[in-house]
Amino acid sequence: MVGTQWGDEGKGKFTDLLAKEMSMVVRYQGGHNAGHTLVVDGETFALQLVPSGALYDHIVPVIGNGVVVDPFVLLAEIDMLSRRGIDCSRLRVSGNAHLILPYHQQLDALHERHLGKSKLGTTKRGIGPAYADKAMRLGVRVQDLLDEMIFREKLRATLSHHNKVLTKIFNRLPVDPDALADKVLSECLEPLAPHIADTADLIHDALEAGQHVLLEGAQATFLDLDHGTYPFVTSSNPTAGGACTGAGVGPRHIDRVIGIAKAYVTRVGAGPFPTELFDADGDRLVDIGREFGTNTGRRRRPGWFDAVMLRHAVRLNSLTELAITKLDVLDTFDTVKVCVAYEIDGVRTEKLPYHQSDVHRAVPIYEELPGWRADLTAATEPRHLPSEAHAYLELIEQQVGVPVSMVSTGPGRSQFLNLTS
Ligand code: IMP
User: Fold this and answer.
1) Of 28, 103, 412, 419, which one has the fewest beta carbons inside 10 Å?
2) 171-200, pLDDT tens digit by residue?
3) What is the CA(268)–ligand 1 centre distance, in A?
4) C-alpha 230 to ligand 1 mean position (Å)
5) In the beta sheet, which residues pair with residue 335?
């Protein structure tokens, strides 16, 4: 399951809906920059790191090797869930996942400040610096916690590098590796140890036993480090290929790739956004859709649905289907718009330009449809949708070339339509 836009598509909702068929739900990239909100039995849960599957007794929630894990955040989340009656003892964390430690967050904030007006608008959770350490072979892994000598040695090595950056470039105090090791080991080792596992092995055991595994993406296609609007991206691969490396499964095991798309588009942080709205329609999307980050509280930038991007997302992820969220947010609009092409320097293009300067200059060409002006929040069957809403979904299907299999019309579990039955 992958996000097809710039994140916040409402992926958590579909994990919830698919959960009953699954025995394992695996996060494969990102870290606590994500924010998944789930409403289960009227209770709202906001999760950052623990896979949404944790809320179901029959599911083994897994944090795969591709995730970057802040152990303090993970333990706080486990503690929050336990206090709310959710048993997290089944949770497994890959020993190969890399740790986010406090100096990563400090470096993330310092880099953003250093960039000034060119800042990326990161979540300041230390995601970029932790993945940079992984690529530089300076990272500290979850399994290192299990060997005190190795853990201390690796922290000393990585901090001998980062302390030079902190003191000489950013004029900050150095971090004492031994004091940090003492803190992490004393607070995190005991509670985390029972969860640490070879998660690729667990996933393959489940697959060999004929069970269903959901690979749950965080962030989204256009925040992908390789395929997104670089540098305004996250530091991992949310696209479907990232699910293979981030979980340890080959592509032959993946038989369904569900792309989640909002009925309009939002983006947090900087970067190009061809269908962005700066008018009253944009404000209405933000107000009605409550488009403020679950994680950072930032106002999301709103825009109309962009089929040019979606067509590209279908290809990049080999999507088999689309699930559309928040259709109800459009309930009161007289007219709804879908961007079907861009105009760049007077030339029409139906493809996302590979040159990003062109994306910055792209002017959306819209197809406009009459709105349905009806409350969809109680719709549970296709026949409950007005013909205008069907027309909107059909236009999306026709534009992007894959079927819309599911639609959600509100945060609750029952606010959902299966269009395939
Ligand atoms: P980072 O992932 O914190 O490094 O932030 C890089 C970019 O990705 C910024 O534009 C963030 O706003 C964006 N981003 C990261 N995580 C999410 C998410 O879960 N939803 C939406 N945007 C995100």
Assistant:
1) 412
2) 999 999 999 999 999 999 999 999 999 999
3) 7
4) 12
5) 370
- Return d(Cα 38, Cα 36) in angstroms, integer: 6
113 vs 172: CA distance, rounded Å: 13
Q: Which of 112, 118, 223, 301 to mutate to test the pocket of ligand 1 (most atoms within 8 A of CB)?
A: 223
Q: Which residues are catalytic?
A: 8, 36
271 and 251 Cβ atoms separated by less than 8 Å: no
pLDDT tens-digit profile of 275-329? 999 999 999 999 999 999 877 788 999 999 999 999 999 999 999 999 999 999 9
Atom of ligand 1 nearest to the CA of 127: 4
Q: 299 forms bridges with which residues in the sheet?
A: 292
DSSP letter (8 states) at residue 356: H
**Could you give the CA distance from residue 28 to residue 65 in angstroms, rounded to a whole number?**
7
Ligand 1 centroid from CA 413, angstroms: 26
- Residues β-bridged to residue 44: 39
Q: Return the amino acid letter for 12.
A: G
Beta bridge partners, 99, equal: 69
Q: What per-residue confidence (pLDDT) applies to 15?
A: 82
Q: Is 378 exposed, middle or buried (0-12, 13-18, 19+ CB in 10 A)?
A: exposed
- In which element (H, E) is residue 81 found? helix 71-83
Task: Name the CA radius of gyration of the chain, rounded.
Answer: 22
Q: Is 127 in the pocket of ligand 1 (CB under 6 A)?
A: yes
Across 1-85, the runs of DSSP E, i.e. the strands, are: 2-3, 24-27, 36-40, 43-47, 60-63, 68-69
Q: How far is CA 20 from CA 25, 56, 145, in A?
A: 11, 8, 34
Task: Report how far residue 152's alpha carbon sits from residue 165's, in angstroms, rounded to the nearest whole number.
Answer: 20
